[in-house]
Design goal:
The structure is a single chain. The protein is built from twelve helices and 25 strands. By secondary structure, the chain is of the alpha/beta class. The strands form six sheets. Strands 5, 7, 8, 12, 13, 24 and 25 form a seven-stranded mixed beta sheet that branches. The chain is globular, with a radius of gyration of 24 Å.
């Protein structure tokens, strides 16, 4: 990493190499000149580039990244996903804007630095930062939690209205803290963890217990927590229930763990990759189905076969494949029909099946309405319904705490994340991360700075 001094104000900055530490009668700003993985156009590979990272403004922190990881969403980002409405007034987005955003002309955000999973140490803080300090180990996240807005107080959602997901790739003030050759670089949401240093609003970071293994903390920043929270928090899987998980990547494995923690009796994993069977077993899966071995049967038919024709209580769709939505719905229990004694009186119909959509995809498709009308519940989930400040510390504790096994023979962590890590690369070999990610035995790739 190099250093530079910027003279003037943020509106017009001239950058020169840092050759002195004091200048008379001149206001100067310390910039960092460092390397980051930048994607310039949709479909292109990331390139390591020297970029400038500004110092943190008020309520912001600058983080020295220790490690990051690769998520399917990062690959989608390199391919132009997501496309978001460019808000000329730089106002924050919240749930009331979603329909407008999705129905308006969009454009990809390039150049951009991907990455939304990672962990690092705070190098410097801006004014009015009180919850964290220099030297703290933190996870940068793509959503925050104020605890005071309507959504936070409801206890029903983790989508904070004060600190929402930054869809426009910019900081809350509508600007970026990263540039290259004077050109603005967009953030991935507000994270961009594939950079040696990042700047982020302090309301989007969570402190990490120093006892936590740092690679595991990186995995908690998105994938695994998204799945775990969906079962643990979003729908609160009931004891002795039957659960199906479509797709056994990091998100799906998180669902398995969450369902196990909730006491599900049957946890059925579904994946086209037989290598995921062993991984699924490590996270509590009780049964495995590979649709490729089914001679053309649909996923929903396969799940009904192993549940006596009833379907499952909970079906978690983790692939993002559009056609799997209907399969997930039809694989869930339809209705319970019962009457008064001797079948005389009122007929009651009660829906039992719950479908949780987790996999991200910007494509649209045709939805079959009749299966939905027959009493099922469909729920979407962002980050598994997990609240950054209220819930992440609890999950971290479960990753640290050790409990006794049956018959007190040994101890193990409540949540064991070792099986997620399959590959490691250095930051300067980040192109290899994409190659590893395509391998059938890959779950998570750790990027070490």
């Amino acid at each position: 990493m190099k250093f530079a001094l910027a003279f003037g104000n943020y509106g017009h900055i001239e950058v020169i190499p840092l050759v002195a530490t004091k200048f008379d009668n001149c206001e100067c700003i310390l910039l960092y000149v460092l390397e980051a993985a930048v994607v310039w156009k949709s479909g292109e590979q990331v390139k390591l580039e020297e970029i400038q990272v500004d110092p943190p403004k008020a309520t912001e922190v600058r983080i020295k990244m220790i490690c990051a990881s690769l998520c399917h969403t990062d690959i989608s980002v390199c391919n132009g996903f997501p496309l978001f409405f460019m808000n000329p007034r730089n106002t924050s987005y919240n749930e009331t804007h979603i329909h407008f955003i999705l129905s308006t002309l969009h454009q990809p955000l390039f150049p951009r630095i991907p990455g939304h999973e990672g962990v690092g140490t705070i190098e410097s803080v801006g004014e009015n930062v009180t919850e964290v300090k220099e030297g703290d180990v933190v996870m940068p996240l793509y959503l925050g939690e104020c605890g005071e807005c309507l959504n936070c107080k409801s206890g029903k959602t983790n989508l904070c209205l004060t600190y929402p997901i930054r869809f426009n790739g910019l900081m809350p003030d509508g600007t970026s803290r990263m540039s290259i050759g004077g050109e603005k670089i967009y953030h991935h949401f507000n994270c961009s963890t594939w950079s040696e240093y990042i700047v982020i609003d302090s309301n989007y970071v969570v402190k990490v217990d120093p006892r936590m293994e740092l690679p595991h903390a990186s995995f908690l920043a998105c994938g695994f927590t998204t799945g775990y929270g969906a079962a643990w928090k979003e729908v609160d899987v009931k004891k002795d229930s039957t659960v199906a998980v479509l797709g056994l990547g990091a998100v799906g494995l998180g669902v398995l763990e969450g369902a196990r923690m909730r006491g599900a009796a049957r946890i059925i994993g579904v994946d086209l990759n037989d290598m995921k069977r062993e991984k699924g077993d490590a996270f509590g899966m009780t049964e495995f189905i590979n649709p490729a071995d089914s001679k053309g049967k649909s996923v929903s038919d396969l799940l009904k076969e192993v549940t006596g024709g009833l379907g499952v209580d909970y079906c978690f769709e983790c692939t993002g494949v559009v056609s799997m939505f209907d399969e997930a719905v039809e694989a869930s229990k339809m209705v319970s029909i019962f009457c008064t004694s001797d079948f005389i009186g009122t007929l009651y119909i009660k829906g039992l099946g719950t479908v949780v959509l987790i996999g991200a995809n910007q494509s649209s498709g045709v939805v079959k309405f009749i299966p939905l009308l027959l009493g099922r519940t469909v729920k979407g989930s962002i980050y598994g319904g997990v609240r950054p400040q209220s819930d992440i510390p609890t999950i971290i504790d479960k990753c640290i705490n050790r409990v006794l096994s049956s018959f007190n023979l040994f101890t193990f962590r409540e949540i064991q994340l070792d099986e997620l890590l399959t590959h490691k690369v250095s930051f300067h070999e980040i192109d290899k991360a994409f190659a590893h990610f395509k391998q059938p035995d890959c779950v998570k790739v750790l990027i070490k700075f």
